[in-house]
Amino acid sequence: MVSFDATESLTPFREGRGYGAILFDRQHLRQANPDWFVPEKWGDRAQPVGDGGRGGAWFIEAPSSQCVLRRYLRGGLAARASRDRYLWRGPDKTRSFAEFRLMRALLARGLPVPQPVAAQYVHEGMFYRAALLMERLVGVTSLATLAQELRAPWEEAGRLIARFHRAGLQHADLNAHNILFDEQGKGWLIDFDRGRLRIPATGWREQNLARLLRSLLKLRGSRSGEDVRQDFARLRRAYDQAWSRGF
Q1: Which of 49, 57, 112, 212 has the most beta carbons within 10 angstroms of its beta carbon?
Q2: What does the alpha-carbon distance between residue 134 and residue 136 come to, in Å, rounded to a whole number?
Q3: Sign (positive/negative) of CA torsion 238, 150, 222, 47?
Q4: DSSP state of 37
């Protein structure tokens, strides 16, 4: 876990029968408001995000910047019990606070990730709900879309992943929707929920790459599996070269 630092601020609040808190960087914000995490409060300035994920994300036209609001939602069988509630284990164990701090740690290492704005949780009884507000990356396209359009920067994607792995990031869901590029070819990683910083090791690095290949095969559209594997081999060669050079 990334520990608390002196630039963090915490704003508590009440909501119905529960209570919550907002974690934010006081160097970027003077105060935080629980309404920021309610899409309906933004009105027409909140538009649902359609690409990838389970829903629960909105583009927000905030007064000072464009942002993304994401609520933490369950998938698979767990969603049948509850779509958005998680077992309470304390504020520092909430998924929103953990991801907020991880993103700040990655930025401190000079890695290309969105700037987190604020993280929130609402605790009631044995469970909590959570959300994260971050700056939006404008003018970017996912590797999934670029691959289908036959214009994916495979080598740059491999170098980008190697750079994060070298810094010790174990991404919990390295799929083709979570790798983004702009028109100039600059890349970013997004969605660090359940990610963590670790000593780089072959096992989890290979698992990350295998997850990405499965994602590319699933999202290949009309392309053949062989075509996808050939493109992934280009990514892998660039990854291995960058890793061997220590990048």
Answers
A1: 212
A2: 6
A3: positive
A4: G
In angstroms, the CA 159 to CA 168 distance is 14
CA dihedral 197→192→172→189, nearest 10 degrees, is -100
User: What is the pTM assigned to this prediction?
Assistant: 0.93
Contact 182, 140 (CB under 8 A): yes
User: In angstroms, rounded to a whole number, what is the distance separating the alpha carbons of residues 183 and 137?
Assistant: 12
Torsions phi, psi for 87 (to 5 deg):
-65, 130
d(CA 68, CA 167): 25
Contacts of 209 (CB under 8 A, 6+ apart): 161, 174, 236, 239
What is the per-residue pLDDT across 191-237, written as a single tens digit (0 to 9) for each? 999 999 999 999 999 999 999 999 999 999 999 999 999 999 999 99
Judge contact between 178 and 191, C-beta under 8 A. yes
Tokens describing residue 223:
């392309």
Place of tokens 């970027």: 28
Contact 116, 25 (CB under 8 A): yes
What residues act catalytically? 173
